[in-house]
Known about the structure:
mainly alpha; two-stranded antiparallel sheet; cell outer membrane; Serine Threonine Protein Phosphatase 5, Tetratricopeptide repeat; two-stranded antiparallel ribbon; 2 domains; signal; TPR-like_helical_dom_sf
Amino acid sequence: MRIAIIISISFMAALASCKKYVDIVPKGKIIPKETRDYRLLLNNTNKLLPGYGTQELMTDNLDYSSDPALENGLGLTSVNLFTFQNDIYLQNADDAEWNNMYAQIYVANVVINEVMKSTGGTEREKELLLGEALTLRAHNYWALVNIYAKAYDAATAAADHGVPLVLQADLQADLMRKPVSEVYTQIIKDLEQAASLLPATTANNYIPSKASAFAMLCRTRLMMRDYANAEKMADSTLKYRSTVLDLNTVVANPRSLPLYISHPEVIYQRHAGNPYATMFISPDLLNLLGTQDLRRVLFTADGKTTLNLVGVTFYGEFIDFRTRNTGPTVPEMMLVKAECLARSGDKDGAIGLLNQLRQKRFKPLEYADLSAATPAEALNTVLDERRRELFCTAARFFDLKRINKEAALAKTIIHTFKSATYTLAPDSKLYAYPIPPRVLEISPGIVPNER
């Protein structure tokens, strides 16, 4: 497969939007040389923010059966994901999420491969850019391997097909899928190096800090089900970033919610690849949220009022028209730590962290502490709280993929669409997205996923 065909259009468009910073040498080619060139290359938020997001459609968080007009209005890919079809895309179709993430990896590789040899900057300036690019590359590989490959399993990861692992800025590179274990090893290597280079604080949440690298290491260890190290990485993250926004301070005026670029909870700002999607909340999730939870009050809305459709819709993106954040947050790190504590038998420590978070998610008179009689109950309570806190960020897809490896936690997902019932078993091969048809067409040698 020629990587040029997959990403060159996106990459050249990214460079063109920053055309002021480059020399044209030779004619028609954009060659960054000075350290500031690489800074501007990484500043291209339009190209470097969007990633994944469609995965929420395969979870128990969404439901589209409340209104026939809602069912008829979904796009084909959304319908195929929601109804667990073997074929998601049209024949020879592209996958925007795959394309976007590999385009970002190319930009990251340009910086990683070249910035330390650039001119006009200090050694420290170059190291900071290198750290940013390593975090960007690792984040995208984390998403790609957890979307397009099987869930990490230590017993099979060395044999399971992962994703193409491109580490050089070579538009003509031939790609083959690397084992899941190799992709994870590279992610960890990139993030550990990034953590050693990045500063404690940055100008905004788009630019990664030490906390960003630690948070992504935390996510990586969590998906590996390496809970001891996931807890350590959560602690490392929370040492640098620990602020939780009290939703009581914004509920009267939702437009006063901080922008993600400066939001105190956002550790590394990333955007959903399917912004402003129509997402109607399932009765199961609504029951979990209840009616007093300020996350429901702020981030959902009556579908009849907003879209003239029966049901409850996700409204978080429409408060002031901001694409939803899929990057790691302070509450997410608290929830990871709580899960790890529950798994290690510390039920009180786990529930204590949940209550610390939930105190800022309810009005004072409507708040009540949670409790758990056993570590197993505490674990289930933590997983429920992850659904409440992280809904519509695709986190539930990754959680299901991970916990389905455990018989006690495995869950069958059942969706109803146009009066038909569709079922996704815990061990379904459909949890690994298909390699995009266009990629398979370009490179017949790449191994497709079993469906």
